[in-house]
């Protein structure tokens, strides 16, 4: 058992802060692409705006993880993350054009770079055998915050507009910051950490494998369900309310599947079944979405990426951290999240470029092919792992 343990009250407060943090980060997401299109922003620049969210994560996540392990503290990084989540939306309010959203997404990415400390601080309170359950739980509250944000944005967008939604984002970030001040964290480190020793975790092939698989999963998720799928809905004639409903369906699915991922029924099949299977489902989603000719079809398809967020992402996190020493976990998580931030940065940019040069259908088919690569790579890994276990 790890040294730290949560009281029930502390855990509830922490998970409430997690939901508020992601509420602040994502409440504007259902309408970001359509709002930028309304402003006259090109698909290519919209892709850059979306990709900017991953750039700061790519740059800062490994240094943040390394620093957290070095000082043995997470509270300061959690506080910074909640603060930046609200600050980002101030840019959207006072500089409400394409460049303003670009700058805001850089700050949102910096806030999300601190997610390392949220994850590690929480999972450190649980034993090794309960890591998958703990990971699925914090991912569930992560998705719950997004879901509430999507619900309020759907209800409020036509009434208060993008600027009103961004004000709610600022308020949620402030509340999360207040809750972060109440985190109790004893200082466990007394001497200086060996940076070279901490960085040795970056040599682990298993960590790199699941980081690259997460790169595929996160890149496709941000590009499709969080972005261009909403524009496809608008092109089919969907109202702002239906665009919001689409995001709500996705988030309800994500919360439900994240809860399922922590159950015995899901754990019995394990990652060797779920990871390749859900990658196939993501491929199917990418093939079907641009081919849909009815709004109702697209709304139904939004259930599928919920499996990607709720099950696949939970398992990729727990598999990446499996066997990582406690004192190196932040560094490992920093590398893991920095690698998948590459997908969050590059996938929207090249998909936007493909949409401008050819069609959105072409962009989605390329994403489907990339997801199939994830299926093959993960399946081969588990087949080889099974053979190695039998030969021992």
TrEMBL record:
Query: Membrane-crossing residues?
Result: 12-29, 35-55, 76-95, 101-122, 134-155, 161-181, 207-228, 248-266, 273-292, 298-317, 338-358, 364-383
Classification via SUPFAM superfamilies: MFS general substrate transporter
- Residue ranges of every copy of the Major facilitator superfamily (MFS) profile domain listed in the record: 207-392
Write down the InterPro entries for this protein, in alphabetical order: MFS, MFS_dom, MFS_trans_sf, MFS_Vesicular_Transporter
Keyword Acetylation attributed: no
Q: Does the keyword Kinase apply?
A: no
Tell me the superkingdom of the source: Bacteria
Q: What is its main location?
A: membrane
Q: Keywords assigned by UniProt?
A: Membrane, Transmembrane, Transmembrane helix, Transport
Cellular location of this protein?
A: Cell membrane
Q: How does it sit in the membrane?
A: Multi-pass membrane protein
| Record-linked Pfam families | MFS_1
Recorded hits in Gene3D superfamilies, A to Z, give: MFS general substrate transporter like domains
Under which name does UniProt file this protein? MFS transporter
Gene source species: Lacrimispora xylanolytica
